Fold this protein.
Amino acid sequence: MEALQTLRLALVFSIFVHLSLLARSSSLSSSELQIVNAERRIDLSSHIVRVYLTLKVENTGTSPASEILLAFPPTQVDHIALVKATVPVGKKKKKKSYLPLDVKSAEVPEGPNGTKYFSILLLNPLSAGESVTLEVLYMLTHSLEPFPLEISQSESQLVYYHDTAIILSPYHIKQQITFIKTPSTKVESFTNVESTDRAGTEIKYGPYEDRTPYSYSPIIIHFENNNPFAVVEELVREVEISHWGSLQITEHYKLVHAGARHKGIFSRVEYQSRPSISGVSSFKLLLARLPPRVHSVYYRDEIGNISSSHLRTDSKKSELEIEPRYPLFGGWKATFVIGYGLPLQDFLFESSDGRRYLNFSFGCPLADTVVDKLTIKVVLPEGSKSPSAVVPFPVEQHLETKYSYLDVVGRTVVVLEKKNVVPDHDSPFQVYYNFNPIFMLAEPLMLASVFFFFFVACVAYLHIDLSIRK
């Protein structure tokens, strides 16, 4: 009887939660907010799709609104790497500044056809009758599909891009327009709907007026894109802290060309003699932007050191130009290691509460590269306690233990993991920990004790008579 009553209470509670979520979703629908003007610019110049969205939102309801929803079709949700939103401050264009807004995945039921949402939290609630202008940037990875899937060495790379001519939104949009920029004028085909125009490298859809919520008009663009599709399948970066004055970085890369797969044989002679035609979608150079004052830089793979690298340093930055042993065509892979040292005083600081913290950059140093899985391991000095990490975006965190030379109890390792990383994730993060300086004497005392006992053993051996008879 008690079990039946408990089941009924659980059922009533679940219905109540479901209804409350529906009520919250409906409260954020088009009945309270509407988009007065929307402009979207989609940049397809590289294999990372960048979408710039300008929204002027007006509150037509009676109660204040504290958040604004962004809607995405289910085909794009898994490819979203980053969503940023800002609000302009100031009336003059030249003196206008932008304040960042918090953006997070919205915990509301899915919309029509599996639509999912991101929530933009406003700095101040939007009162009835007021309007606000938002600048939104979101990036999509693995959203350009090669077609054909395989190309020869002398062929150009063609890709598909799927989207909608009408901006998907849970709100009524009074006026909107979309611009799509392609890398070149070589466009094989594109969906031609109402109010479509093309000029040079730009395709315009709109303007459209008075579109109801969740309006959708699918489009496909088939165009040439020979930019390098550099994707790091896995990057493991180890940051080892030594309080004796150095910071040692070791990065393990698994790189792949994620474009159209190469078919046929590879001709080195043709590749060298006709560089503008042969292998136009391949790449043989990568640029790694490293911190300034870098030293002891090395670049090697499983065979050994690779000498075809160039390092340029100055007081503000360091650039490492690396060249794999062979050019990378579609589907080809390369594994290598980059290592370097940095001065500890540039990255290790002490907080007001006496804790030490490391301030380092997240993300991949390779320019215009997507990282499917990034793992950062911060190796703290032996004896460190109470570690904690502060990262400006959601990541998975856990602790490990590593044993190095002369370690007794092992070193604490703070492990940070994130998937679908783009260059805009290159933001500073901090790792805090407590450390007693007395632990710096542990290894010198251990070495001194070993040499002392070895000396005592030698003296004892020389003065002890081990003969059977005198």
Observations:
- The longest strand covers residues 230-242.
- Confidence is low (pLDDT under 50) at residues 1-30.
